[in-house]
Amino acid sequence: MFLAVRRFLLTSLLPLGILTLTGCAMRRFAFACLLPIGFLALTGCSKAEWVGRQSPMDPKGPLAQSQFDVFMSTVWLSLVLFVIVGGILVYAVIRFRERPGQANTRPPEQGHGNPMIEIGLIMASVASLVVIAIPTLEAIWYMDDVPIEAKPTSKLSAWYTGKIDSKVAEDVLTIDAVGKQWWFRFEYPQLGLTQEGKRAIPNEIVIPRGKAVRINLRSEDVIHSFWIPKIAGKVDMVPGRRNHMWIQGDQVGLYYGQCAEFCGDSHAYMRFRCRVVEPEEFAKWVEAQRTPAAEPAANSLAATGKALFAQKTCAMCHRVGGQYDAGSFAPDLTHVASRTSLAGAWLDNRDPATQLAIDAKGNTELSAPIDPALQRKNLADWIGSSGVLVDANGKPVHSADIKPGNRMHYYRMFNVAGLNETKVKLTQAELDAIVEYLMTLN
Ligand SMILES: [Cu+2]
Question: Where are the alpha helices (DSSP H) in 293-422?
Fold first, then answer.
């Protein structure tokens, strides 16, 4: 936030400061104040910040690269125009300024313009718009679908050794991405990881390195938008409409995604992650996702938690593959403990200090390991928030919301006001048992 403000100051104040150079004492005073602020703003633009988590300035795939190239060519063209127009302006201001002893003289004779210059300027503007439009349109078409030349290397059967669903004949790996308030559901129809097959993947996708992946985009409620700044962006997910794009990750690592279309209370908390791995590791991941959830040991705390999961209505919305198969509204929890984040990738299960140190180096290849203590705390905080956890007197322990308006703590049938949620209540012991159970779901 602070850096954004500084950058805003830079863009607005620095030229102003320079302009004031040319004027009277008052303006010179303003200049003296503004220029240093402008230079201060410059210090916000370090390389370290450019390689931040969600920076399109650090492309790691062909699509992000093409979008970055369009952006930079526009920046350079605008810079040239800025220097030409600004230069003429500064020249005019200095050359025709009021000189001592000239006060109250009449202004010089005014002309009515030169048609050749005016037509010339219009033509120049049109030409520069065309110069910008060509690469922009090229990049838009490029994003639309996996390019033909990528298909030979991306043909799924050519590199994926696991079982492919022959009913779904697509030659490249396809992911169906669905936006929901306020999380993402992903499905791999060719690999049996689907909502129908009771194995959808919430919030964290995994894709093989160097392979083009087709993404079908849908929404089940309002308009969302799919964006992984370092890999590609951004295409809207519109209810009742099928959009698509493609992505490719060229460097192994963990990338951060974000919903990029305002979609309600918790829009800013609607994130997701994309892990780019080597193809062999991708196959292993798919296998792990296909396996049903592990059964907790008899009479353990986790087994109590498993029973509570049904008693406390959790199973109504959530699926735990092989144990509770009815819920389809909420994130699939079959492998919830294997994920680096929780609740629309809003809560991070990794040690934040370690991860920030890695991110600051721009090293996407590394990701801090999941910290089980933190993961446990996140689970308890999330489930017990919004007044769900109660003390011995039935009083809520945490009344604050981790995600405002979220559809778990504020579920309303058909969104009708009045048909409001009847929130479950959990005691500390019940919450502990449920968390223990969820921690076994690797
Ligand atoms: Cu959204």
Answer: 301-311, 314-317, 352-360, 372-384
- The alpha carbon of 258 and the centre of ligand 1 are apart by a number of angstroms equal to 8
Ligand 1 centre to CA of 436 (Å) is: 31
CATH topology of domain 54-95+116-290: Immunoglobulin-like (2.60.40)
Q: Look at residues 291, 330, 271, 297 and name the one whose alpha carbon lies nearest to residue 442.
A: 291
Parallel/antiparallel/unpaired status of strands 271-277 and 204-208: parallel
CA 99–ligand 1 middle distance (angstroms): 59
Kindly tell me if the per-residue pLDDT of 218 is higher than 60: yes
User: Could you give the C-alpha distances from 277 to 255, 257, 274, in angstroms and in order?
Assistant: 11, 16, 10
- Å from CA of 224 to ligand 1 middle: 4
What digits encode the pLDDT tens for the residues 410-431? Answer: 876 555 555 555 678 999 999 9
Residue-level pLDDT at 125: 92
Cα 72 off chain centre by: 21
Give me the CATH topology for the region 301-439.
Cytochrome Bc1 Complex; Chain D, domain 2 (1.10.760)
* Mean pLDDT, rounded, for 396-413: 86
pTM reported for the whole predicted model = 0.84
219 Cα–ligand 1 center, Å:
9
- The β-bridge relationship of strands 183-187 and 201-202 is antiparallel
For the chain, give the number of residues.
Answer: 442
Q: How far is the CA of 176 from the centre of ligand 1 (A)?
A: 16
CA distances from 77 to 34, 129, 204, 350, 417 (A): 27, 10, 38, 42, 52
Q: How far, in Å, is the centroid of ligand 1 from the Cα of 195?
A: 20
What tokens does 309 get? 């999961």
pLDDT in tens, 130-188: 999 999 999 999 999 888 888 888 888 888 888 888 776 668 999 999 999 999 999 99
Q: Kindly give the distance from the C-alpha atom of residue 355 to the centroid of ligand 1, in angstroms, as a whole number.
A: 25
CA of 336 to the centre of ligand 1 (A): 21
